[in-house]
Amino acid sequence: MATMDAPPRWDRKMQQRLSRGEAAALGELYDRFASLVHGLAHRVLGDERGADGITREVFLQLWENPEAYDPQQGPLRSWMAALTHRLAVQRLRATETAALARGGEGTTEDLERKVHQASVAARADYIVQAMPAPLRAALELAYFQRRDYRQTATDLGVTEDEARRRLRLGLQLLSTAHDTRPSGTPPEPGPLT
Hints:
With 193 residues, this protein is mainly α. 70% of the residues lie in helices and 0% in strands. The chain is built from eight helices and no strands. The chain starts with 8 loop residues before the first helix and ends in an 18-residue tail after the last helix. Residues 1-5 and 181-193 have low confidence and may be disordered.
């Protein structure tokens, strides 16, 4: 069993292959993470063309600078999601600020609220995609099909206690979506960012 300090083998090998300039590695990386990157970018921007641009930018940055990812700092999936989020928020702020400068409706506070809401939604999407399949299945039954824990247990073929546990854990994970600060960072006074 791998220790918490050891990065996943695939992530280490991918970073090494990208550092050597293996085009096939970029193709594998794209096949594995393009839908994640595009989906997160789209969730923040609400724009297909913008999400396409962010997706290209994320993969280009990793191709041109594979050393930016340090496998010791965590999974490649999380690193790519964080990069996508940062680039998408930068683009959202830039386009919305430009619209405000041209006399568009709203204020800078509205912009920050929009950025925060997009960040929370993107983080929630990422959490759901990354959570273990049993938790995701229980949440999908409860939320989308409006099943209670008893019906969820029956549908999943598990005990009622297990269904409650899965729902509780899934909801606990989702509740962290509102905390978009890096872990260990105290809340800042004033407007949400």
